Amino acid sequence: MYSSLNMALTQVRGYPEPQITWYRNGHPVAEGDHYIVDHSIRGIFSLVIKGVQEGDGGKYTCEAANDGGVRQVTVELTVEGNSLKKYSLPSSAKTPG
Which residues form the Ig-like domain (predicted)? Predict the structure, then answer.
């Protein structure tokens, strides 16, 4: 088990300011003790996973949405025993608003 993993997937800018939603395997990530969403002043949104375990692997998507449209960036996280691997998928989607 790892103490924590910080996935800073994307820098987001937009007007009006976009609403950010994180998904794991297509389901919204609920913020709490295990998942923490961080937003820096420079527009960087991160998902921190505390106590990373093998069961935390999967596809993580950061979605930014505002009146101008929706943009998604997805990465696949693989945790194998004592080895943590993060693979970027060629998955970025943009839809007009």
Answer: 1-78
Where do the structural domains in the chain lie, given as residue ranges? 4-96
3's tokens? 């103490």
> Cα 92 from chain centroid?
12
Token look-up 């998902």 returns: 47
Which residue carries 């949104």 as its tokens?
A: 45
4-96 has which fold? Immunoglobulin-like (2.60.40)
Which residues are 93's β-sheet partners?
Answer: 72
Please write the tens of the pLDDT for every residue from 59-93. 999 898 999 999 888 888 888 776 656 555 545 55
22: tokens are 């994180």
- The CA distances from residue 16 to 13, 41, 54, 81, in Å, are 9, 16, 38, 43
